[in-house]
Amino acid sequence: MTLPRPHRFDLLMGFLGLAIGLLLWSFGLYTTGDRVLDQRWATLIPLTVMASAETLRRTLPQTALVVGTLAIVADQFTNGNLVTVLMFTDVVYAAVVYGKPASARRVPYTTGLITVAVTIGFLVWWQNAIALLVGVLTGMISFMPALTGAVVRNHREAAEAARLRAEQTALLAEMDRAQAVVAERARMARELHDMVANHLSAIAIHSTAALSLDEPATTRQALTVIRENSVAGLAEMRRLIGILRDSSGDAEPSVAPTLAGLDALVDRARANVGPSGLVLALDDTRKTVAPLPAPVELAAYRIVQESLTNALKHAAPGEVRVTLGQGPGALWVRVTSPYGERPGPTAPGSGAGLVGMRERVALLDGIFEAGAVTDEGGRRLWRVRAELPVDASDEERA
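and the corresponding structure tokens:
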């Protein structure tokens, strides 16, 4: 196994410690005297070993602590070197700061127990106050560096946790922002489609009729419808652009469509059916025509609007019936149109209208159905049905 390369700063610390220790040794400066190994050269062995442990303080902190502990114990049998003691305190500190979490938690407790044990042992042996001084010195070179390392490590871990929380908060905020942008783009797409699609569909159908039929009266009627829908579509586009810019130029803010405007919507659709053979009918079966929450009324209006547009583009000749009803806690909308082949010009569809209606209902936690059905008389119909929840509190306020 390849050993990790010592950190450059640790190499510098070990080299400086060894150099300063040699300088003190050359001047004959020792921490004690009259020890077991009083030879002058004996002090250099713990000093060199401790300097080696210092170079491992960051890459192998546990190994450095074990080697440093052996060196400081050996130093007690020589005349001693102050630099050896100082480097040992740094090795203890580094073992707590850079060591593994489990061992880093054990070092302060271990050094504290050693300090207490040394103090009690010398008190029993010497039975004087000097034993307390030895205990204090032991705590200063072992327990205090470990305690300092624990405080520093806790602060670093707290700072790292705060940084991670900040990054997570920023990531969540970015995700929320992206989701909000996607939701707003979807809302804009629905509004743009619902406001403009019916006008463009009418223009496409009547322009095709004008090009297909060589009848001046029919052509003039088609051009009239085209002009009306072009002007109305342009106005809707300007209003939408104004909403997007938050400055429509109007003195009053734009008002969202409501169910009160369904009569006008159906009347405009009647003007566009032309020679398609469609007959439009509105049947409001609600017992009380009271205002509902704005999102519910807007969704119901847009569903009727898009259903009439689809009928204009695809329905076979016959009756297109719009039915409104309200039961306990819900408003339901149903639009039926003849299903089958239709004569004359048609307009292509992309399916975006059905997607938009389904999204509107889903945002209100409602129920949406669209597809071909067979009525009691055996006729094939295309039916769009939406059930929009209305809270009881909303009905009471209305």
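(Above: one complete record from the training split.) The beta strands are 278-284, 318-327, 330-338, 367-374, 380-389.
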